[in-house]
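ok here's the first one, seq then struct tokens
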Amino acid sequence: MLLDTHCHLDAAEFAHDRELVITRAQTAGVGGIIIPAVEVSNFDTVRTLAHQFAQGAYALGIHPMYVERSQPDDLDLLRQALLMHRADPKLVAVGEIGLDFFIPEISQGAAREKQERYFQFQLQLAREFELPVLLHVRRSQDTILKYLRRNAVCGGIAHAFNGSFQQAEQYIALGFALGVGGEMTYTRALQIRRLASELSLESLVLETDAPDIAPEWMTDNRRNEPAEVLGIAKTLAALRGISLDELIQTTAKTAFRVCPKLSMALR
């Protein structure tokens, strides 16, 4: 099954043609799309959207880039939402959570401390509700790995992975898969393409991060969308010298392993 394990389908960029975007994904053979939340205000949005089409699934969490503007009770509201919807088969993970040390304004001092506090609390929620996590990791690989070792969760996905081989191996050892998306399609992305080519195929999953990280061929329209995961799959299969069918089936098996509820969400 062809899966997009990370797609912000609720984004404003899709407001005028979201149904067509979903139809194009279905036509491309996409059998599942995980829609992660980024803040409390879109928890209901991603949940409702995931229930509007058979291929939908969702995650609830507070993105590190939204931590600074969050309200004091947002973590409590996240816990309440996870508790309220814990029996929902389409709720498959806690996410998108993580750390972002790329943006100076949120990667220093009190802002960084708040990011780390939110991340640890959300890892604890993932443990409490026995859910995997969808990780945002930007210039924060080693710090995130430190927190994962301290707060053992039941795995998940390191979204848009762009670390070293050694870091990749540490995530894999902790039960995580690594998300491969549009960035891998650029011939200049030598490190990412080498990782995608040489790491165990069983450690990789496909994603778009739509509407962001458009693949190389989208020269006229830079808005990415879930249908493009088919082209990403073709690129990865060519890099690895395997058939498209093997690539799709193996990455889907991995996605179902690290997000066990996903198979129920797509029935």
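and now the second one, same deal
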Amino acid sequence: MRSEPGADRLNWCDTHCHLDAFELQADFDALIKRSIDAGVRQWIVPAVSTSAFERVLAIAQGNDGVHYALGIHPLYVKTAKTSHIDQLEAWVLTHRSDHKLLAIGEIGLDLYPGHPPIERQQWFFEQQLRLARRYELAVIVHARRAADQVFSALRRFNIRRGIIHAFNGSEQQAQALIGQGMLLGFGGSLTFEGSRRIRRLAQALPLRNMLLETDAPDIRPSWFTDQADRPNEPSELPAIAACLAALRGQSLVALHDAFAENLLRFKQLL
């Protein structure tokens, strides 16, 4: 797919990558260079806790093409304080005119075994949805094994713009979330032949409802199988895109152009 006419001129966006993660810091400048050299020149970096806000903002301010989101991840509510919602709101008020601030995120619900108490997750999620609604920001949502609960909350708070990160639900759940105005993020999981449900959805859904992401340093693609300690990074996005193009029988350029338009809609630039 890399030899496809025009593929070398594409400008991809990794719509969900944790460039502030510890695993990516030692080699950060080289990582950004590898990403740019691979054709990934835009990044959306969501915070996962209030302690990450300063670093996420610094990365956005120091790198062209980086946008960011501010939020408290459902797995981080275990140690979060209720006062952190006030802290988040203060940050949003301070930076609401910053065109690089795109969303409240990464927020949501996680029902994987060992998750924090669902009542605590739900409280933090709803408080952050209120902020998104109040300040007319999009949301970037984590919904592991919780697509129905996430949809219910989005509908209740009338949130109509956002991304469901690393979507792994059913087609019925996908359609409900799309109907609520959400874009669905797909990444390294679709590169595994055993990920049948994700691959079926990635083939079947209209491109206008999808985005691509890496979730770096996590959700490693299939070619990392023998490199368990190697962190994922944004430079892998074009290879993930090529896998998706092959699954769908579409050109890489067609995918790129559709996702670029989706991103502009997400940013409210269309």
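notes on #2: The two ends are 29 Å apart (CA to CA). The mean pLDDT is 96.
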